[in-house]
Amino acid sequence: MSQAFSPGEKERIRLGRENCACIALRRATRSVTRRYDEILDPCGLRATQLVILLELAYHGSATLSRLADLLVMEKSTLSRNLKPLEARGLLAFQMGEGRHKLVHLTDAGVDKLRQAIPLWIEAQNEARARADDADWDTVLDTLDALARG
Question: In this protein, which residues make up the domain named HTH marR-type (predicted)?
Answer without folding.
Answer: 18-148
